[in-house]
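Q: How do we represent a protein-ligand complex in a form that can be generated token by token?
A: Start from the inputs.
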Amino acid sequence: LWFEELSPGYPVIKIDNRHAKATIALLGATLIEYTPTGSQPIIFTSSKAIFQEGKAIRGGIPVCWPWFGPHPSDNSKPNHGFARDRFWELKSTTKHEDYTEVTLEFDTRQVANELWPQHTTAEITFRIGQALDVQLTSCNRSDSSITIGGALHTYFDIAHISDVSVIGLDGVTFADKVTNKHGTQSGALSFTKETDLVFEKTMATTTIDDRGNSRQIHVAKNGSRSTVVWNPWIEKSAGMGDLGNEDYLSFVCVETANAFDDVYTLEPGAIHTLGTTITVNTSLS
Ligand code: BG6
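Then emit the structure tokens for the protein with 6-O-phosphono-beta-D-glucopyranose bound:
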């Protein structure tokens, strides 16, 4: 485990144990690389990602916190909260037999009072081993109740979007953010256009069938009853300065979320943990 600077003033933590390699940026506590030994990378990071304070990384696992998407009542506040483009503090690193554990913390006392007046902390723990486990715990340290949402906005690296489906959401209702309609998923989800779906009331493990890489990536979750599936497709990608024009072919976001109605009211002193465990199976054929 060691530190490097991706660019001046932009430290990352590098982990390399017998099970996997990983890189975690202190900015946003964003994991930008996870590659199990003998496997292809699991996590996609844009070749045009901008590594600078105040800019969320396009790729990796941005931590959307303490809300998901636009702020529910004030659209002058940043999309996906304010923690993904600010520095987190490294709390501890521990090497275990089967994994390396890294914990970082974000304290809302570092943001303007207008943005979030009530003292709240987020602690994120990564376990890097044969599986990638990520647990984000919010704690209300103020003396009144707060509402917490968010997401582990994971960009998965895939061989080709036309050769991918997401399994595990059959029969689940969704809000479609592209058409503004509701629907129910039938069978596996595949991709032929811009996709931005918030699946509701689901705690299911999803599986990304990445056929081009002959592998399946399993995304289990806890503390989450919503799953967001996103791919910007051609036009939207073209409008994003930090994503290459063809990059949409190489990733899909499957986000372990607390989105829309799936938010948590925390009384003073209360905590909520949102987490995901990612594993990969490579077919032997
Ligand atoms: C997804 C949202 O989670 O994130 C999309 O559902 C959004 O609507 C996407 O476009 C990317 O957001 P951003 O702020 O990182 O460009």
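The chain has one domain: 2-159+229-276. Residues 56, 69, 79-80, 153, 177, 196, 228, 230, 255 surround 6-O-phosphono-beta-D-glucopyranose (CB under 6 Å).
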